[in-house]
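Recap for those who missed Tuesday's class. We walked through two folding examples back to back. For each one, the amino acid string is listed first and its predicted structure tokens come directly after. Nothing is annotated here on purpose, so try labeling regions yourself before you check the end of the notes.
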Amino acid sequence: MSKPTLYGPSYSTYVRSARLALEEKGVAYELVDVAMLKGAHKEPAFLARNPFGKVPAFSHDGLNLYETGPIMRYVERAFPGPALMPADPKAAARVDQVMSIVDSFAYPCMIGALVWQRAVVPMQGGKPDDAVVAAAMPQVKLSASEFVRLLGDGPWFGGASISLADLHLAPVMAYVSGTPEGGELLTAQPKLKAWWDRMAGRPSLAKTAPKFD
């Protein structure tokens, strides 16, 4: 079986989620950088992999995929290694639900507003817009409270072992935790903080640390 290839920049949360799935399964893979800051995701070479111009894209044994959820689920199904989806249908549905919440509700407010203003704008030499952050915080807090509720008393979203849901949320929380508001949020939600501490200590997180050069 050939080595899978993942296309996208390491700083993308979605690229990192797919990488985490590969790392946790113990799959050797190639990461091909896509220089998004230079517009490479909108050039013909990448659009041939994803006509919507979003990362990541993925290829393996003649299969070409885009969209992070399908890529992660393919990695889970196609490769041996620790199971990243619970066998129980109800627990698996919860994993799917958490992944969907990340995409539909958490990412836009947490990354698109909070992290963008607190981290990306200053990195580009601009001044954060506090009004944008303030407007996003109710949705940020709602997303966090739902993650806490769905986590319940278990260590991981899938139950006793780590799941795709944990790997999908982790890159988002890695950025959120570095903001003042994110730090306060984790302090106010001790179960979420305990989950993040467990997640942040995994070798897969260290191996997929984003690079901005």
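Example two. Treat it independently of the first, because the proteins are unrelated.
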Amino acid sequence: MRLIGAASVVFILALAFAISAPASRAEQTVATSEREPATRHKDGQAIFRFDTFGDEQFWTDVLRMHEVIPTVDPATALAVGLKVDADALPASLVKELRAGRVDLKDPAVTISLLRLNAVVGVKGTVDRGGRLTKVGVTCALCHSSVDDSLAPGVGKRLDGRANTDLNVGAIVALSPALDEPTRAEFRSWGPGKYDPRHHAFDGTNIIPLNSPSVPIVIPPIYDLKGVGFETVTADGPISYWNSYVGVGQMGGRGNFADPRIGLFIRQTPDLVTPKLAALLEYQLSLRSPKPGRGSFNAEAARRGKHVFRNQARCSTCHQGPHFTDVLSGPDRRVPLLHDPSEVGTDPEYASRSATGKYRTTPLRGLLQHPPYFHDGSAPDLMAVVNHYDRLFGLNLSANQKADLVEYLKSL
């Protein structure tokens, strides 16, 4: 059996760049579900940014990425979408980077940067001799970016943003545990995608789920408070998905069970479940970025709002403050979903989920995360508008389409 799962693979990417060592605040977090809200928020941020849930058992023991990372230079790591937290860098290093006096082609610089725990979403342990001994990843790897304020790929953290620069396949192919067919499969993915339905990891073995791989776009995770069912197929609420990913995809030590997809994982001690409440508290605090000045035409957006509500009939499904109808069914505990044929999207990924359908996508912050649709088939918002214009026979004029795009940019 091939050794790496596409679903888990997304997190390996950071491995090519990360080997920081200091213990994080998240490692001290226990029984967070009983904490006060403010404390849970603080703990949740630390968990999101720094907690590996013990997934070194996967990335180190099975994938052996600690053998590869020391050979990767910073320029290569940045080129495949890994990010560096500028706030974790000492002032002296910031000054050298600004002056262009840091050799980004030297793998030793990678070690120096990662020793500072500055690589977003990656943790490593380096011994006194400078040897990387362990590597793990965190939630922030895929669901954080940086503002590029210091350099491309280096800046202040932007938690909740999808890292659509992340080239999962390019990094996965570096694992010495992979055979060549698996390497070829993941090289074909491209930036910003992973497949959470291909394999799972049970703490010891890679469990095949579905084949061939069907990667999807890494989603943003901001403005989820009140949405109700947050994944593209609405398999469950946030903590369900955090458990699924933390245990089965990242390879953390914990428990997960869902008879709908036939997946049952049990490990002790459970390092994931006790932290879900605090992690949820932090994730629900993340807000979508406001459109920047000059990023859309305000007058056209006002006209586009009218098109959205009337001629284009978008508000039929994109309802209310969150622009989704997922909670509008007769029972709010059961998501209202749409068959792939109803919305003209690829059915393959949905067929591998627990629901077999898609939920209406919330629209806040759309401008920040192209490409669109779960498979990235729409490169920009005009492509989205054209898709639905054709599917529903809307016969929108060119001006109406342009105005509608400007409105979507404004959300």
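Answers for example two:
Residues 1-33 have pLDDT under 50 and may be disordered.
The longest helix spans residues 37-50.
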